[in-house]
Amino acid sequence: MNPVPELLAPAGNFEKLKAALRFGADAVYLAGKAFGMRSAADNFDDDELRSAVQYAHHMGKKVYLTVNTMPRAHEYAPLREFLMRVGIPAGSDSVPDAMIVADLGVMTMVRELLPQMEIHVSTQAGICSPATAKAFVALGAKRLVLARELNLEEIRLIRVALPDEIELEAFVHGSMCVSYSGRCMLSNELTGRDGNRGMCAQPCRWNYTLVEEKRPDVPLPIETSNLGTFILSSKDMCMIEHIPALMESGISSFKIEGRMKSAYYAAVVSNTYRMAMDAYVRDGEQYAYDPRWYEELQSVSHREYCTGYFLDDCRENSQLASSVGYLREKAYFATALEYDKDALPAALPAVTEHGVLALFGQKNKISIGDAAEFLTPGEIGKAFTVTELYSEDGEPIPSAPHPHQRFFARIPFPVTPGDILRAGRE
Fold it and tell me: Quick check: is 322 in a domain?
């Protein structure tokens, strides 16, 4: 068996970082307020970035900083200042473990200013051959984030061509881009927002019509089904059913896409892949796929799933979506804030035959009688019915309807801070 791959999750803000790490990610990737490919995410200012890195390191986890835009000439001066702020002093517990870069100029500057910094080459670089992989290694790359257009056999060819110490990273779950390795100019052309500099407006997800030259006022739908036509919008990747093939492929890091997604998404997807990966390591040849893992991944916001290009030739199967929009995720009711029986209101028993009482922070309205599921790291969501809710003062309440409201709920399972309450099946 190959070394156990890293599970790498997205962190669009501190809440998402905590969720991903708590639910099984070995590392997260995130961005500062500039020079990352997801400028619309909350991202991290300098102080938040230092705190995030310290938090992850305290847990024994890693943080990779994305600096993967394609800067113009006038951006190199502020880029230099940014790199100096976040990368010095070398060896500090608040310094990221690696920087993810796509541009050769950025890569050169990182090596010049931060010679001890590990460099990961972004998927934006479009690495799809052993020759390209070797070229980036010669320039100082420690890890290569492979193009999403590669199949498993092509990945194996790259793996055997490189020294063992060079790591390969590949996306295994999340959104895909219709353009090769994400290098698209459509957003820039239609909106002025450059997708190669972190500002993609995702026009590939829009609906389009044709206009005949002599009848400009009569737009014509491009019809291929009763739902419309989706000539640009990709499906979402989901490789949960193919963990053995991934684990034996030589990929060093399994990457989850989704810095723009919710903390719930970060938690559920990290938890699901963690369970599957751990099961394969534990069981080996006796490994058995659990269909409940796929059900877990159905609970998060996503488009229709596919296996990316791992099992298909991208030139023959473009994996285009057949329906518009997202399949919405389950309602995220609340997050457990603490379980401390000594901190409970005096009138409320900490433990009864119906479970334990814990303090939660509301995300969406939850009411007595709701079908709910309780999610904790390393386990599938467990179903129960909400029977007891109390205000912070210990008064019975029929619901917790207010954003960020703190309330007590009786849970028929052990509770630890960070556990999740979500909607269950009716």
Answer: no
Residue 425 Cα distances to 217, 295, 304, 331, angstroms: 47, 12, 20, 11
Q: State pLDDT tens for residues 293-315.
A: 999 999 998 888 999 999 987 66
Compute the chain's Rg from CA coordinates.
23
Same domain, 32 and 128: yes
**Quick check: is 118 in a domain?**
yes
Report whether 406 contacts 344 (CB < 8 A).
no
Asked if residue 242 is part of any domain, the answer here is: yes
Tens-digit pLDDT profile for residues 377-406:
999 999 999 999 999 989 999 999 999 999
Q: Please state at what angle helix 46-58 crosses helix 76-87, rounded to 10 degrees.
A: 40
| Helix, strand or coil, per DSSP, at residue 373 | strand
- What is the extent of the structural domain holding 150? 6-182+232-306
**Taking the model in full, what pTM does it have?**
0.87
Q: Domains in the chain: how many in total?
A: 2
